[in-house]
Specification:
alpha/beta; Rossmann fold; UDP-galactose 4-epimerase, domain 1; 2 domains; 7-stranded parallel beta sheet; 11 strands
Length: 319
């Protein structure tokens, strides 16, 4: 049994990860912003994450850290937003890594993003050893965070493993994926029937399983890893599978992609259309081949979890 510190424990990924770690026999300590956000078990208030965060009380007698907390979902880049990204994601990670090294922590697992590689618009399947090409402030801040963590590892005994992931789905999902689930459940006509792209996803259970493995496996340290469910879907296929999981049928209209992109430019929603029509694939083969990782759930099993959660939430709201 070991003590694991989890940051971002109140978030979409953190809640499930903490449950998984406890069920595996680990003592879980959570780093929280303020006392009102305490989680089950031991919590330590660290305040905002940045270059001056006091981590020492949270790191006492900790063997491993899984760092999930990050600043995300700022809609528009600006100099101030970029500063905030780098304050939390880059300087905050650097500070945590240095304090963890000083405290004798054995391993730090950093959850990063495939946005470090790019946005998928170059048609390549992304691999961990590709030259990074982030296009927004968030991606740049995560790339810099990875670099600082590895720098700290080179000067001490702390081992670092980085996991970059594409879109994460699972119960409690928010933002664009939840909107898509709602549209499918409501049987709205969706002009995406002709979209023939390929996008990688990773389910919440699969992500937490891989994070746990990276914390434990001796070959995981010192490397960047990519994670996915292992089956890439087109947007139209994703909609069909979501509809099946929701117990309904999709209403897909075969509108040509060029028309969709034109409409995106006219309506100011080019970025949203690009995500729906574009491809973004990751190669998670090395995690399988080197670490022996097998995703515990298939894509369809993960989507069924999303559907069951959504329908239960909807039923509760109606009553």
């Amino acid at each position: 049994m070991s003590t694991v510190l989890v940051t971002g424990a109140n978030g979409f990924v953190g809640r499930v990860l903490c449950e998984r770690l406890r069920s595996a026999g680990h003592e879980v300590r959570t780093a929280i912003r303020d006392a009102s956000r305490a989680t089950p078990g031991e919590s330590v208030v660290v305040g905002d994450i940045g270059p001056d965060t006091v981590w020492e009380p949270a790191l006492r007698n900790v063997e491993a850290v899984i760092h999930l907390a990050a600043r995300v979902h700022v809609l528009h880049d600006s100099p101030d937003n970029e500063r905030l990204y780098f304050m939390t994601n880059t300087a905050g990670t650097h500070r945590l890594a240095q304090c963890a090294s000083d405290a004798g922590v054995r391993r730090l697992v950093l959850l990063s993003s495939i946005k470090v590689n790019g946005e998928g618009d170059d048609g390549r399947i992304y691999r961990a050893d590709d030259a990074p090409a982030p296009v927004d402030a968030y991606g740049r801040s995560k790339l810099a965070a990875e670099g600082h963590a590895f720098d700290v590892a080179r000067t001490g005994r702390l081992a670092v493993a980085v996991l970059r992931v594409p879109l994460v789905h699972g119960p409690g999902v928010r933002a664009n994926f939840l909107r898509l689930v709602r549209w499918v459940a409501e049987r709205r006509p969706l002009p995406l029937g002709a979209v023939d792209n390929r996008r990688s996803l990773i389910g919440l259970d699969n992500l937490c399983d891989l994070l746990t493995l990276l914390m434990e496996h001796p070959s995981a340290a010192g490397q960047v890893w990519l994670g996915s469910d292992g089956e890439d879907l087109s947007t139209s296929d994703l909609i069909r599978r979501l509809a099946r999981a929701l117990g309904t049928s999709p209403r897909l209209l075969p509108v040509p992609e060029r028309v969709l992109r034109l409409l995106g430019r006219v309506t100011g929603r080019s970025a949203e259309i690009a995500r729906l029509c574009g491809s973004l694939q990751v190669d998670s083969g090395p995690a399988r081949e080197i670490l022996g990782w097998q995703p515990p759930r298939s894509v369809d099993e993960g989507l069924a979890q999303v559907a069951n959660w959504y329908l239960a939430e909807k039923a509760a709201d109606e009553h």
